[in-house]
Amino acid sequence: MSKKAAAPSGRAPAPSKRVAAASNKVAAPKKAATPTKAAAPKKAAKKSASAKAVAKKTSVSGAPAKATAKKTSASGAPAKAAARKPTPTPAKESASAKKAAPTAVTPAKAAPTKITPAKPPRNESHTALVRRARRINRELGEVYPYAHPELDFENPFQLVVATVLSAQTTDLRVNQTTPALFGKYPTPEDLAAANPEEVEEILRPTGFFRAKTKSVIGLSKALRDDFGGEVPGRLEDLVKLPGVGRKTAFVVLGNAFGRPGITVDTHFQRLVRRWHWTDQTEPDKIEAAVGGLFPKSEWTMLSHHVIFHGRRICHARKPACGACPIAPLCPAYGEGETDPEKAQKLLKYEKGGFPGQRLNPPQSYLDAGGIPAPPLGATIPSASAPGAPAPASAGPAPGSPAREAG
């Protein structure tokens, strides 16, 4: 059979005519492929399948030819499906991209109002507590990189006196009062020999001025008589001075001598309990519990971070939860105002556009947008933030309770 099919000359057998006819039919779809009608590919696929089937009949029996024809038709099915699905035009793609754009933006706008803080479990392990506490401190460090002691001082003597005077009042009021005090009594020897009545008159704006006069004159005498007129740099010596406790001692050690210490003031006590760092209520026990969560080298700046946050955002009566940068980490989220716009109006000091507490703040604070506090008797500049109060006589900072001085 193969010799007859391959004869180059003479009469061709009947099957060769079929091959010629099939070849003529196969050539037709090449011309029909140019039109844009979707039906052209279908006809071309059918004719090519029949041509293959006819060619195989000349050399092989009819049964395999039918099988191969079925296979070719099956392989042509994807082509039919592809022909039915038109390819999208660039115009349609750009239109669909425009429609998809708003859906990618809306979640970002809605994010501030959908804060879901992860509350710690009831039986939180010590390791989990340490990790959570340190993460909060890192976040606060990024929010307040300029955190610092908010009492004006030039030497350890001024700092220890100012810290004693800050009890039951604001650092702002102390900073407005101490320039007159240190201007008249610049050394421990001068203040130790001062007339109590004159000192009382100077300290009257700070409140409890009689008790505070007794304390600052007493500690000045102790410095003169027991420490040669110098402020000691040891905790056990500082707490012996009249009016000086552990909190005051750690403020002096951390900020005047660079020795780590935790300052447990009213803000610190309130926030560490709100964050579930400890459930202790006594300052010395809070100090021990929180101190065990952090390296000793971080204690001083930890105190500044927590106190700064308590004065500016996490207030005692109405925290600004909706404007809090650590809201997702706070177990007490929702105790205050959660609406971002309303919470923004609750911010204080530089976060709300108000003056700070120091008349002479560090340069880093000024670079961050902080405003120096006005001197005693001056008017407070109006804040740039929405809802700022009108200028008033310089006293405690706007919205700051006298007992939350720290």
Give an overview of the whole structure:
It is built from 19 helices and no strands. With 406 residues, it is an all-alpha fold. The protein is globular, with a radius of gyration of 42 Å.
Annotation keywords:
disordered C terminus; 0% strand; 53% helix; 19 helices; single chain; 406 residues
Which structural category do the helix and sheet elements fall into? mainly alpha
The largest β sheet comes out as: none
Helical content band: 40-55%
**Tally the helices: what do you get?**
19
- Overall average pLDDT: 77
- β content, as a range? under 5%
Low-confidence stretches: 1-83, 87-112, 384-406
Distance between the termini: 110 Å
Whole-angstrom Rg: 42 Å
Could you give the count of β-strands? 0
Order of helices and strands: HHHHHHHHHHHHHHHHHHH
Q: Estimate the global geometry from the Cα principal axes.
A: globular
Secondary structure layout:
Layout lengths: L1 H4 L8 H19 L7 H18 L4 H14 L1 H8 L5 H21 L15 H18 L12 H10 L5 H14 L3 H5 L3 H8 L5 H18 L8 H4 L7 H11 L9 H9 L8 H9 L7 H14 L27 H5 L18 H5 L39
